[in-house]
Amino acid sequence: MSEERITALLSEAAQWHLLGLLFEYPDDSWRNRLHTLLPDLRQENLRAMGQAALHYATEGLHIALFGPAGSVPVREVTYQGGVQFGYLMAELSAYYEAFGYRPAIAEADDHIAVELGFLSYLKLKQALALASDDEDHAAVTGEAATNFLKDHVAVMAEPVAKNLEIYAPDYLIDAGLLVLEQAGPSPRSGYPLGANLGEEDDEMTCGPSAAASDLVQL
Question: What CATH number is attached to the domain comprising 69?
């Protein structure tokens, strides 16, 4: 059973890695990493996405879609509905530091490629913990992945998918729909609204949410 779970986690890690790569800037390093990943993708639809990206992705397309003035914003802060930027970035930083995650790309911590890469990283860590018979660390890492997917990736999954359907080529539309399928609908923001700052609100909290701030280094 452990071997099956490990294999499944490695497959999930490869899937999230691919999805993250599809939102990265397509330079030579990106192409090399995507070529290296393709043999690890078990599902035909994932391999087709990767191969289509290698064929169709260009710097111009990336900038038109995901650049600063692009048609498809891919930063979580865009969709948080009044979130204070500092709260969001502090929580993401807490997650990344707790698990030793160092993004390989020069994007903001709330960029979708960074967040999807983090999910891939967590799945790899969970598989490694299981392979080492460390069920406790595997459980903590698995819970972190579930919470991060729900609290962060899900916030932008639906609007990104909808915009991709309007502006993007088919392989990116498929990628957006797959992220949405995995993440589910957007949750209600857990952050204080900017309009409420300075007003008394018993429910307002400051700093990262408990889910992130309580994490331990793994």
Answer: 1.10.3480.10
